[in-house]
Amino acid sequence: DGGITQSPKYLFRKEGQNVTLSCEQNLNHDAMYWYRQDPGQGLRLIYYSQIVNDFQKGDIAEGYSVSREKKESFPLTVTSAQKNPTAFYLCASSRKWNSHEQYFGPGTRLTVT
Amino acid sequence: AQKVTQAQTEISVVEKEDVTLDCVYETRDTTYYLFWYKQPPSGELVFLIRRNSFDEQNEISGRYSWNFQKSTSSFNFTITASQVVDSAVYFCALSDPYGAGNMLTFGGGTRLMVKP
User: For residues B3 and A99, what is the distance between their CA atoms, to the nearest angstrom?
Assistant: First the structure.
């Protein structure tokens, strides 16, 4: 089945550690996105990638880094510089960078203590 | 700057009632797209509908209907004869199709609780 996978569903880390969240898609989509969702709030864009080997900062990129070495993969690293890393992280993809529907993965809930 | 407002943070209804979720948006663009997504307790966002700014025709899909009114910058979503499975958080979103990265601007979401 085609879709977007994110693993793990729940992730726990100690403060000061970097952590990488995975996002894989087999939809052959060019564009991929990372969003952060805090309790009771909407989604905010962290980073996006229109095509392989390219990515751009979104609204809240500070403390995060990404790579896009393969079309199907867009991992997000939450660094120790991110002041409030505990959140729900959602990955999405769209067929082309200017295609309008974005399709979302199941999300990863990160807790940092 | 674009903005989406969902003034209703939480709505509770009894099964079989009709319910309307409000969405008001702000944009300077003449061409834009509006979306509704559903987020069930599992967390994944499920795409429901996309509407472009040139198409003000209302749309119905089963028990779901959408009312787009450009004059009031609103894109409201109605669920007819609600069911317990409709319980979820619903997000309205706006995109600028010519902006960098096709970024979506989301509203804060409306949590709908349908009680049996």
Answer: 20
What whole-number distance in Å separates Cα of residue A19 and Cα of residue A88?
Answer: 14
Is the CB of residue A39 less than 8 Å away from at least one CB of chain B?
no
Residues in chain A with CB shorter than 8 Å from the CB of B23 are none
Q: Which residues contact A24 (CB under 8 A, 6 or more apart)?
A: A4, A5, A6, A72, A73
A71-95 pLDDT per residue, tens? 999 999 999 888 899 999 999 999 8
Tell me the per-residue pLDDT of B55-108, one tens digit each, with 9 for 90 and over: 888 888 899 999 999 999 999 999 999 999 999 999 999 987 666 556 788 999
Q: Any chain A CB within 8 A of the CB of B4?
A: yes
Among candidate residues B78, B75, B103, B59, the one with its CA nearest the CA of residue A42: B103
Residue B107 with chain A: CB contacts under 8 Å? 42
**Closest-CA residue to B37 (of B109, B95, B91, B104):** B91
